[in-house]
Amino acid sequence: MIEFRSVTKQFPDGTVAVENFDLVIPPRKTTVLVGSSGCGKTTLLRMINRMIDPTSGAILIDGEDTSSLEPVKLRRRIGYVMQNSGLLPHRKVIDNVATVPVLNGVAKRDARAHALELLDTVGLDRSLADKYPRQLSGGQQQRVGVARGLAADPNILLMDEPFGAVDPIVRAELQQETIRLQEGLGKTVVFVTHDIDEAFLLGHQVVILQKGGHIAQVGTPAEILAEPADDFVASFVGADKGKRKLRIEKVGGRDIVVDEAGTPTGVLQS
Amino acid sequence: MNLVAEGIAWIFDPANYAGPQGWIVRLVEQLLYTFGATAIAAVIAVPLGYLVGHTGRGRDLAVSLSGGFRALPSLGVLILLGLGLGIGFRAPLLTFVIIAIPPILAGAYAGFESIDRKTIDAARAVGMTEWQVITQVEIPLGLPLLIGGVRSSLLQVVATATLAAYVSGGALGVFIFEAFATSNYPEALGASILVTALALALEGIFALVQKLVVPRGVVAKELKEVRPRSSRPLAVAGVPAQEGK
Q1: pLDDT digits (tens, 9 = 90+) for A38-65
Q2: What is the pTM of this model?
Q3: Is the CB of A51 less than 8 angstroms away from the CB of B215?
Q4: Domain ranges of chain A
Q5: What is the CA angle A233-A234-A238, rounded to 5?
Q6: Which CATH number fits domain A2-241: 3.30.565.10, 3.40.50.300, 3.40.630.10, 3.40.50.2000?
Q7: C-beta atoms of A86 and B121 within 8 A
Q8: Predicted-complex ipTM score
């Protein structure tokens, strides 16, 4: 469990990125922080592994105040996946995946053997192990980034807009992979995105943020869709637009779900 | 016989290359100056450049310092130092160290600066200590530009080392100064050919070294001249390798 307790972050230039933020992130679930740019979502994420320290307030991981922990040690037990993968260009795929275990003192041979298994886990062919990151496609690099994030078997996985730079088809694949991995491995995933559809797809808990890290609404996707807390949320999730207002039409004896404009979106199953 | 042939004949005359006054000894002196001054300059400039490149602090100072040092006229510095330190090897050596510092300093910090910030951020985020970020990420990725700087220093010093003879510091300049004093043009030309050949040989060797130290997975580009007050991401070193390269 990760707990934010009245966390405020003011940057040296005076910008208040996050103000009085409270949130409980449940274990073994995916929590998505979603909002437009400048809402402080990445700042919140980076405060969990102390890439950024809060100006005031506390962040607790399983009841332990992170400010009492050594940042380097903390980061090594939290997986981190970033946009554009952030792989080391001068190291082979396999060594990139093995980075954290090696830093933790695992023998290189063992770390590499484990890294090969992780390539399987994230759906990459083992033949890519000896390639360099630049020789991989964007989607493949992102998978390597996920494998690296999982390498030290962390309980927590932080994902900072990891699929922002890949094309829609690959993105959909990676999203499904993320769901599968989270369910299979039972990690606590904290995911940052500006895409509300991605948030609803991945999140057990979705946190909609407004400027300054103010929470507009927290809930399951269904709760948020059913009862948007205010106009901002309604507009952000698109409830005020046609695509979230679905109705059923009978077509040839089947119940077809269509949106407000009448565009079919699916078939109702009995 | 024309002058070039006379110059070459001068080089191959045993009377000129053998013995303690021969050009082989002078060439070794030239090389000692070159590598000695570059090594001393590296010991000073590399840690300093790394510090500037890693922290981003003192960059303006480093840029204007290396720019200013480059503008110094070598002969003037040599004479000035010669007046203070007397004749012999010390004044030339110190002069050459001063000449060698700017390119190495620029290569060291530009090497670090050329690295994608996201790569460094990611290295930190997965749990590397500052020291590990420097040794495992910044030094290997910055190496091509540093070697470029060292190469540039060596070339500058190997040519300038000829001036050492001006304050009785030995090296190949001995022949050139002597030749001009006695109007012995074959000797002047022979010695000049030697200096040129030496510079070309070094250039060739270091071009090769520079290629070899580029980390696999990245393709290096040449360091463009680092000028004072340039915008920050001037040097682009780690350009993505294309597939199949």
Answers
A1: 899 999 999 999 999 999 999 999 999 9
A2: 0.82
A3: no
A4: 2-241, 242-270
A5: 110
A6: 3.40.50.300
A7: yes
A8: 0.86
